From TrEMBL:
Protein name in the entry: Alpha/beta hydrolase
Domain AB hydrolase-1: 44-163
Keywords (A to Z) from UniProt: Hydrolase
Transmembrane segments: none
Keyword presence, Ligase: no
Record keyword Nucleotidyltransferase present: no
GO molecular function, one term: hydrolase activity
Length: 393
């Protein structure tokens, strides 16, 4: 089913919106390009928070022109994809990493492909993409991770059989960090802690400055357009080091996210100069989130902090990511450093890592801020990985 009104005329030529029914219990809304004809290799693009399939709109034609059939779905909990329960009190298991991995696997199958020629995950889409390649390298024979490095799966303690004491449990980490941040001279809280709370959805959905203004400030402050973004590696996972990050990552204790980003709202001149996210394009985000709210998108943060919902992940303990891989970040993006040490760990977790690329002039929203540069990296990686012509229906 084609939705001709989606995007209100802002979709690039050759990009269409449609629904695919019955995908791991979902009806999936997606954007695609390069869909005319047959025999094209499949490129699957997975977005993060608070993005949508729409966030890939600038990149879709670039990859289609390179010969790919490019598909970007609204992930579970987002946009026009349905089949999930929109409630804070809904079961969280459907939003687990492995079930969202199944979503991607089921979508590839529904589209009539045996495997992807390109798999790209950005932000929260990055761990989904990583587990796709970790669990099913036959279907996902290469992977590109953006903004969020993959440190490897959680591991069982090794060589502890002769110890008299039980190995230390690591599940208390987020709680310990939260307690330490709250006791700083300027009390703080981690944004993931905040986004997991019951009030976060209403805070984001009905902010005092209005949804459109909040989204504009949020996209602006995490982009290269905001001069305050000077990312650097954190020395250790301590409260003092985390507190060096901007307040959209490590917030003042009593603030909501709309309050945290409001002081950095762009001027009218800066909005006009933002060609990568025009007011008409931002209106698409405002309409979509105005309709759904943010709870579905926020469920992933709650899963991330719940040990019971991650209990399946140590099934991959000791397993490495053995397909050709690439990490891409924005030069002005804090994302690669948000988890101290993760970027270094990825070099060990991914045995065929083709490199780490930081795109100049890009913040967190790489696919929107610098789609041409990103497209060049992706296309070159695809050729180097030897995947051209290897994906069949």
């Amino acid at each position: 089913m084609t939705t001709s009104t989606y995007g209100e005329g802002t979709l690039p030529s050759g990009v269409r919106s449609r629904m695919v029914r019955g995908v791991n219990g979902l009806d999936v809304h997606l954007l695609e390009a390069g869909h005319a004809g047959s025999g094209r290799p499949l490129a699957l693009l997975l977005h993060g928070f608070p993005d949508l399939a729409y966030g890939w709109r600038h990149l879709l034609p670039v990859l289609a022109d390179a010969g790919y059939h490019v598909v970007a779905p609204d992930q579970r909990g987002y946009g026009r994809t349905t089949g999930w329960v929109n409630s804070y009190d809904a079961p969280l298991a459907p939003f687990s990493l492995l079930n969202m991995t199944r979503d991607a696997l089921a979508l590839v199958s529904a589209l009539g492909y045996q495997r992807t020629a390109m798999l790209v995950g950005h932000d929260f889409g990055s761990p989904v993409a990583a587990y796709c390649a970790l669990a099913r390298p036959d279907v996902f024979p290469s992977v590109v991770l953006m903004s969020a490095p993959f440190p490897g799966p959680p591991a069982f303690p090794f060589g502890t059989a002769d110890r008299e004491d039980a190995p230390a449990q690591t599940t208390a980490g987020p709680q310990q960090l939260a307690a330490a941040l709250a006791t700083l001279d300027r009390p703080r809280k981690h944004y993931q802690q905040y986004l997991s709370t019951r009030d976060a959805n209403d805070d984001l959905w009905h902010p005092p400055q209005g949804l459109h203004a909040f989204l504009r400030a949020f996209f602006h402050v995490k982009s290269a357009d905001w001069p305050g973004n000077r990312p650097r590696p954190l020395k250790a996972p301590t409260a003092e080091e985390f507190a060096r990050m901007p307040t959209y990552y490590v917030m003042d204790l009593g603030e909501t996210m709309p309050q945290a980003v409001a002081p950095f709202s762009p001027s009218a001149a800066e909005v006009l100069a933002c060609t990568w996210l025009t007011e008409a394009e931002l209106a698409v985000y405002t309409e979509e989130y105005g309709r759904t709210g943010f709870q579905g998108a926020l469920q992933g943060y709650r899963v991330h902090s719940d040990p019971d919902l991650n209990a399946e992940l140590p099934l991959f303990s000791g397993r490495t990511l053995d397909v050709p891989s690439l990490f891409i970040g924005g030069e002005k993006d804090w994302g690669p450093y948000a988890a101290p040490g993760a970027l270094d760990l990825m070099a060990k977790a991914a045995t065929r890592l083709g490199g780490t690329e930081l795109i100049g002039g890009a913040g967190h929203w790489i696919q929107q801020e610098k789609p041409a540069e990103l497209g060049t990296l992706l296309i070159d990686f695809g050729k180097e990985a030897g995947r051209a012509g290897q994906t069949g229906r």
